[in-house]
Amino acid sequence: MSAPAGSVCEVTDDAVLWNRLAGLLPEAEAQEVKDCWDIGEQEAGLGLLVSGILGHQVPISETVRAQISVLAETWGEREALTPQILQCRDEGTPGPLKLIESDGGRAPEAIGVVEQNLAGLLLVPWITCTRCGQVLMRAHARESWGDLSYLAVHYVITTPNRATVLRLFPADSAGAAFAAVQRACSDAP
What we know:
Blueprint: H1 8-22, H2 27-38, H3 42-55, H4 62-74, H5 78-87, E1 97-99, E2 122-129, E3 135-140, E4 154-158, E5 165-170, H6 174-186
Antiparallel strand pairs: 1-2, 2-3, 3-4, 4-5
């Protein structure tokens, strides 16, 4: 898969996050994950990261779980890795962000959005801010065979009751949408 679209700053931020997450693992495994970034094998690196966290029973926060899910989404591995991400040991401290997907299959929730860009799409709750309640959702098209599209068409931030769209992001902006949710409460007066 090719690198996601974005500014040089976003790619640098992703590399910093990648290295920080790799640091959760023992040194040799952390280096393998870092090497995957360096050689452009992010998909393999994500698999190594998640399996290493599981294998070593490394406790992670809900925010780290959400960050890993966003990286997996960015690199096309979210569907494959979500069951393992959800199995990662919880550190037990509530955080500001929470992955709200369940591994029991998706239950897309269509909401009454009148936005032209969202017409006909199904919104799948993904990550929530536990402080303000805003929800980051993935907007998917329904395929002719009934399943949701593999890739999100948009990313949407909604109000806590999911009735109002606050921000809309294009398909290649999972990281930017996640960053906006992270900033939502920290920017509030």
